[in-house]
Design a protein that fits this description.
This protein has a single domain, classed as Immunoglobulin-like (Sandwich). The protein is built from no helices and ten strands. The protein is elongated and about 55 Å long. It is mainly beta. The termini are far apart.
Length: about 130
């Protein structure tokens, strides 16, 4: 039996305060280096996670009901946001993106530096 990674849609939670938009999504089984977050000029958020080395050296897969990785989701945002000042954390298989609200959308390609085993963090702004 050959195992292939399938691209999975990512479920999200999105909420808004007076000054920021927060999106949380489960993306287990990847490393922060394999995570790409993009704010597009169409005012959408793209979450993408690649996985490397799926089931290396496995002789025979007997049951394969879920995959870790191969994630993609594009989400229309309800407000203009500043992608350049996004805060992102990745830990326990969950990515959380905090985007400051702005007058005009600021596009950005965001990577998440590794800060520990299976943990990543990018600080684009501090305070409220």
């Amino acid at each position: 039996m050959q195992t292939q990674t399938k691209i999975q849609s990512v479920p999200i939670k999105m909420y808004r305060t007076q000054d920021r938009l927060t999106i949380a999504a489960p993306m287990p089984g990847i490393q922060p280096d394999d995570l790409l977050i993009r704010i597009t000029e169409k005012n959408s958020l793209v979450l993408q996670g690649e996985i490397r080395g799926v089931l290396k050296d496995v002789k025979e897969v007997l049951v394969d009901e879920w995959n870790a990785g191969g994630y993609y989701r594009e989400i229309a945002l309800p407000n203009a946001v500043d992608g350049a000042h996004a805060n992102v954390t990745y830990g326990n298989g969950v990515v959380v993106v905090v985007l400051p609200l702005s007058e005009k959308t600021v596009v950005a390609d965001i990577t998440v530096p590794k800060v520990g085993i299976d943990r990543g963090e990018r600080v684009g702004h501090v305070g409220h």
